[in-house]
Amino acid sequence: MLLFGIFLAVLFWMLLFCLKIVNFWAGMSLATFLLAALAVLDRRRRLRLDFKASSLFWASAIILALYLIFWVGNWLVATFLGQLAPQIGDIYGLKHQGRDLFIALGLLFVIGPGEEIFWRGYLQESLMERWGPATGYFLATALYTLVHLWSGNFMLVLAAGVAGAAWGLVYWRFRNLWPGIISHAVWDVLAFVILPYWR
Questions:
Q1: CA 151 → CA 15, 140, 155, 185, distances in Å?
Q2: Alpha-carbon torsion angle 171, 121, 186, 196, nearest 10
Q3: Of the N and C termini of the chain, which has fewer Cβ atoms inside 10 Å?
Q4: Nearest alpha carbon to residue 42 among 110, 129, 112, 135
Q5: What CA–CA distance (Å, rounded) separates 14 from 86?
Q6: d(Cα 161, Cα 157) in Å, to the nearest integer?
Q7: Distance CA 151, CA 197 (A)
Q8: What is the CB neighbour count within 10 angstroms for residue 148?
Q9: Is residue 50 a contact partner of residue 178, using CB atoms and an 8 Å limit?
Q10: What Å distances lie between residue 67 and 4, 21, 35, 60, CA to CA?
Q11: What is the mean pLDDT of residues 140-161?
Q12: Contact (CB, 8 A) for 176 and 48
């Protein structure tokens, strides 16, 4: 089932970024929903969802850290690597495929949580159980980064690698999905809709 899930993720990201046969936001919402459903339905894997008050603290810390890291990264690109700046603009160009409210709701309730459930709670957990924590973490982060190669956008691949590494590290540390789910969902909305890095 795990290999089937990886195959589906690669296929979905290819369809979204290469073939572009559906609205990106509708397609991403459907893809992450299906991947999360696969993770939930695989009875061999128990998702680690243990909500604690500390989950909110750590989620807030991750949101702040990621926002600052990406703000600095955006400034560095604009200042020293101007030739890559249009790639950031291309990422934000996806906003033209939906209204801000629709995008925010999708990110908050489907895409952010769905990605954490599949990529960290299911894929990373499975790889950590099989290959050990460190190897599982690095493999899951690499797979999450590599599926974004379909976009042909170096900055998006880099962003996925940085954010994926952060969320994967948090999952490794706490073995609990809540800090990642909350921070992923809220940071996505903050960085893409409320306080975007690119206007």
A1: 10, 19, 10, 21
A2: 90
A3: C
A4: 129
A5: 22
A6: 6
A7: 19
A8: 19
A9: yes
A10: 33, 31, 26, 11
A11: 97
A12: yes
- Collapse the DSSP code of 83 into the 3-class scheme (helix H, G, I; strand E, B; otherwise coil) and give the result: helix
* The two three-digit tokens of residue 106, written as one number: 């999708």
Instruction: Give tens-digit pLDDT for 49-95.
Output: 888 899 999 999 999 999 999 999 999 999 999 899 999 999 999 99
CB 138 within 8 A of CB 6: no
Of 114, 116, 106, 100, nearest in space to 62 by CA:
116
DSSP state of 43: T
- Find tokens 């790889």 and name the residue: 127
Please give the Cα distance from 68 to 57 (Å, whole number). 17
Structure tokens at 197: 């890095």
Please identify which residue in the block is written with the tokens 């599926």.
147
The pTM score is 0.95
Amino acid 74: pLDDT: 93
Q: Where does residue 131 rank: exposed (0-12), middle (13-18), buried (19+ CB within 10 A)?
A: middle
Task: Give Dmax over CA atoms of the chain in angstroms.
Answer: 49
* H-state helical runs in 42-84: 53-80
- What is the pLDDT averaged over residues 45-49? 84
- Reduced 3-state DSSP string for 159-179: HHHHHHHHHHHHHHHHCCCHH
What lies within 8 Å, CB to CB, of 4 at 6+ separation is 38
Six-digit token string for 40: 């939930």
Which DSSP state fits 45?
S
